[in-house]
Amino acid sequence: MGHFISNFSTFLVAVIVAFVCCWEVGMLSLLVVPMLLVVGATYAKTMIGMSMTRTAFVSETTTVVEQTLSHIKTVFSFVGENSAMKSFVKCMDKQYKLSKKEAFIKGLGLGMLQIVTFCSYSLTIYVGAVAVTRRSAKAGETIAAVINILSGAIYLSNAAPDLQIFSQAKAAGKEVFKVIKRNPVISSESNGRILEKVIGDIEIREVHFTYPSREDNPILQGFSLTVPAGKIVALVGSSGCGKSTVISLVQRFYDAMSGDILIDGQNIKELDLKSLRRNIGSVSQEPSLFSGTISDNLRIGKMGATDEEVTEAAKTANVHTFISKLPNQYSTEVRLYVHKARTVKNSQTSLLFYVCESN
């Protein structure tokens, strides 16, 4: 941005000085500048479209690589190395073809800018010579005007490549700003009612729900369920029938299309979202560990927890003995790999997902 402003401002000053010195030569800027701007604008518009396409191709390639590396054992198990490489090569081939086209457009665009610039040089010198010959302007003033116009054209052409950078930034930031400007329907910043004491009665009334990305595939149709506080309930069904969806709706990751979900007789849409989620403890179907120590991960549920509370939580989950056998115990660094371990506590079956790996 600084480079562009510097060159463009120098060009404007040069044009003003040219008008002051010799208006005949200065008038040429009214012809030269539109020509340069038309060529530059066409070049920039073309590069913006290609930059957006490149961003999409890079995203597709990154997804292929990420999926392959994160499931590398599965790829090896099904002898899918060649298939993964073909997918990667296919994505890279798209980028290669786009790069060749982009190089051609860039060369043509910058070449046209140079052609217009040199043509403006010739025209400016010719007009300046005519003005001196006809004695309508002094030689010194004409030379000053010519030099300023030529210098201005040089600075304007120097500013032209910055348009490509702006186009790339605009293409890359378009999706980011779209997300930033989006107003979510469910926001943790919204204020709502805070329950002073949560008993835990859950009631789901005639809930209909469809995921926004699959509106033609309804998940819940008139689903109703009552879970009294302290009662153990198991939702059993085939994959995709909506078991996890019910939990997501209770945690208000989504809002039901119709129907109500009540906790202690209060509609969860009227409750403070932060307070609601703080009072729900869950182990998701696909849990994650964050970079840091075991203690750091345990504190995610309560950031201000003391060491004693962390230890007590681990004992309740029946993993304290396992953690204590690690070299650094609760200070052991963990990594984002997950293993499953089943434990039984107070006749309640729960899934714990931990893997701790020493550095």
UniProtKB/TrEMBL annotation:
Q: Which GO terms describe its biological process?
A: oligopeptide export from mitochondrion
PROSITE patterns given in the database record: ABC_TM1F
One matching Pfam family is ABC_membrane
Q: Which GO terms describe its molecular function?
A: ABC-type oligopeptide transporter activity; ATP binding; ATP hydrolysis activity
Domain ABC transmembrane type-1: where? Answer: 1-168
Q: Which UniProt keywords apply?
A: Membrane, Repeat, Transmembrane, Transmembrane helix, Transport
Per UniProt, what is the membrane topology?
Multi-pass membrane protein
- Kindly provide the name given to this protein in its UniProt entry: ABC transmembrane type-1 domain-containing protein
